[in-house]
Design brief:
Largest sheet of chain B: 6 strands, mixed
Number of strands of chain B: 10
Largest sheet of chain A: none
Oligomer: heterodimer
Shape of chain B: globular
Number of helices of chain B: 8
Order of helices and strands of chain A: HHHHHHHHHH
Strand content of chain B: 15-25%
Largest interface: A-B, 22 and 29 residues
Distance between the termini of chain B: 26 Å
Distance between the termini of chain A: 20 Å
Strand content of chain A: under 5%
Amino acid sequence: MLILKRTLFYASLLSIWQLIVMLEIWPDYVVPSPSAVFGAVYQGFTEGHFGPGILSSLKRLLIGYGVSVVFGAIMGAALAASKSLEETAGSLFLGLQTLPSVCWLPLALLWFGLTDTAIIFVIVMGSVLSITTGVMTAMKQVPVIWIQASKTLGARGLNLYLRVMLPAAFPAIVEGLRQGWSFAWRSLMAGELLFVTVGLGHLLNVGRELNDMAQVVGVMGVIVAIGLLADRLIFAFADRYISKRWGFRRA
Amino acid sequence: MNLARLLKTDEAKPEAGFSSAGVVMELNGVHRVHEGPNGPLTTLQNVSFSVRSGEILCILGPSGCGKSTLLNMMAGLDTPTLGTVKLKGRTVTGPGADRVVIFQEAALFPWLTIAENVEFGLRIKGVSAGERRDRAITVLEMVHLKEFAGAYPHQLSGGMKQRAALARGLVLDPEILLMDEPFAALDAQTRDILHGEVQDIWKKTKKTIVLVTHNVREAACLGHRILLLTARPGRVKKEYTVDLPMPRAIEDSRVVEVTREVLHDLKEEVRPKPDSN
């Protein structure tokens, strides 16, 4: 039923789009036809400039996000464990979090030059703080009763941390990681658009320079597809695991 | 320091008539002062009693009398401001698997199956997987939950969760099982059934059980002894010995008699006193 509804929705969306193109109100460099967009995507992949672009973007994303997860988890756990750390460093992090991640780009370029490291830095700055906050909140929300129960059952130290705190905080941690992922993805795109190098952002810029609207829309579609795919593959899997164990459905 | 001096009272004398051999836990001159919004607040005052091996001791009192605090101190989750809590002669300094607590909410870990929950303490002790499983199944059988070994906590009813929590404690064979209002959140029928099961388990294992409750009938039904605490600050007001064979039921005439007697004394505490604020 859901599939039918969705198919119907997207089919009518494509038809309306095609209809608008056929009315020829705007030239095709303003509104390309659906077939031109699909053609551009197909060509992009077969002629081999999409593949390397996607790969180098994903490589930056994975490195940047990986660094963020490691540091975010450590800092989040530390902030949750120490009240004075939360009162000091916590306020700094909260302030820095209001800074849009692209704003780090000029600084990154001065520090690292026109290199991949600069973009990776922007990704890290864009996502590490949201992961830190997410992990901290997750740890602090662990109900005291579980901690007390596990202590009276003999758990302490590392056992308490690994066997109780971590699994108890897991659903909220996943939520923080997911938010971090979407911030990392946005930061990557912002960085790549402003700083020309091989990547998805570069492909968008090339389309613009060539007045090739079909490629621009096509690349946008690819970006949406990758974002959705990552979400479905990684986080939907974690969600299923959580709802099975915890017995609740998550939005 | 000042606080401690302020509360200084005579050392409680050891109870006469009981050899210390039968005593599992001993509380001596226990005070607890909490930091209230209007300065220090004494929740427990000079509480002394001992828990004897193999008995069910019910600690009863009006709400806010500090009975849960008392249990937490026996568990090592809280420390007395003054006085000592000793388990078999050694002062309690922190929580441990020899004094398992059953809380009002079952506090099962939702990411583990019922069997894995029961095995939790054994796993921490480093018991091998095979032995863990065997021991878990044995206690789950005792609480009639064997067929739910593979279920997750959210799939169980409130009464079943509480039985699973009981199994999780029993499997560790603790010196004392501490129960903090374990049936307060259950409906009356489920509570009656669990009262029966606790007595069954006691008959089979002869565990030392301390049960905190505000339910007089529950205390009369389950306790070999009942300690009645006063309203805040909590002190031991009276001790009752309930010399009735188990299994007992709440509606048994002798249980009702004891209930009436205790209820009469408790009412004095619930009524507001003119000299208290």
